[in-house]
Design goal:
305 residues; alpha+beta; Rossmann fold; seven-stranded mixed sheet; three-stranded antiparallel sheet; 6 helices; 28% strand
């Protein structure tokens, strides 16, 4: 029997979730003082997360760390990418159906060439249907996405009844070996990360899993996606199949040519949000999500080796 989940994409992924604008984003000792690398947040592809929206805490944190954070509504071309140090694409969606490819082949080729020449890409994806929308670009870097949703009741957050809210702890062997997870010293070392409903990822040879899925993790594969346009908002109904064992990660890093790429299978972990009074993301207590966010961009921009 299949599990049917109805998703309203107008308030996609987190329902009425909003940015936690009260979350303190000040960085006491910014990594970038003399030089301010440009971080560009994509807003040209019906993105769920934008600089002034749900990724506002992400943008504010990086700005406090000395980055020149901007947004862009331009299609990806060699010209539009020029001058960018780190390109952030967070939960892009297609049109008319949000599960359609979000990027043209020409845009994917432009991003691929830009990274190969030394650019740095943070591709943030999420559970269905975001995987479908981002698949075309992920394929360019050899990243295979589960496209559905990952559950792991053995490594879910304590006190949570949601097996999709996963905890990746160093003591459980669920963090990989990478400069992103070590930081620049003991105070930046990552010990515990939490994610909030995402998909699985498998990287190409040479890639490094950052958040490793445990042997008890399962994928809920997508059987069918139904798109229904509406007057005020569109609706996506996603039918998931029976759970199947899965491997891989929910975040990985790789080098590509002269450039660097980080892909995540969940978006909320890199920002701070509130839903029904509950905080989730880097504002969740007892997690290193905030430092992980900084470390990812530090590695992409060359602050970390």
């Amino acid at each position: 029997m299949s599990l049917l989940s109805a998703l309203c994409v107008f308030l996609f992924a987190c329902g009425g979730a909003r940015a936690d604008l009260g979350y303190p984003t000040r960085v006491a000792a910014p990594a970038n003082v003399a030089v301010h690398p440009r971080v560009v947040i994509d807003e040209a592809h019906h993105n769920v997360h934008t600089r002034a929206g749900k990724y506002a805490p992400f943008a504010r944190l990086l700005a406090s760390d000395g980055y020149d954070v901007r947004s862009s509504r331009a299609a990806f071309t060699a010209h539009s990418l020029a001058g960018t140090s780190v390109l952030v694409i967070a939960n892009a969606r297609g049109k008319p159906s949000k599960a359609d490819p979000a990027f043209t082949e020409a845009e994917c080729a432009a991003v691929q060439a830009w990274v190969e020449a030394g650019g740095a890409l943070l591709l943030v994806t999420d559970h269905a249907p975001i995987g479908n929308a981002a698949k075309r670009l992920a394929d360019r870097f050899g990243v295979v996405m589960g496209l559905g949703e990952v559950h792991d009741s053995q490594h879910a957050a304590v006190g949570s009844s949601d097996p999709a809210q996963l905890v990746f702890a160093r003591r459980d062997g669920l963090l990989g070996a990478h400069p992103i997870l070590d930081g620049r010293g003991p105070t930046e070392r990552i010990e515990r990360v939490m994610t909030f409903t995402g998909q699985s990822l498998r990287g190409p040879a040479g890639s490094v899993p950052l958040l490793i899925l445990s042997p008890t993790a399962v994928d809920l594969p997508v059987e069918k996606i139904e798109f229904e346009p509406g007057f005020f908002s569109d609706t996506l109904r996603t039918t998931f199949g029976e759970p199947v064992p899965t491997t891989g990660s929910q975040a990985l890093a790789l080098t590509y040519g002269r450039g660097r790429v980080v892909v995540t299978g969940e978006a909320a972990m890199l920002t701070a949000q509130i839903l029904d009074g509950e905080r989730f993301g880097m504002n969740s207590p007892g997690t290193d999500n905030r430092q992980l966010t900084l470390n990812i961009v530090h590695w992409l921009s060359g602050v970390l080796p």
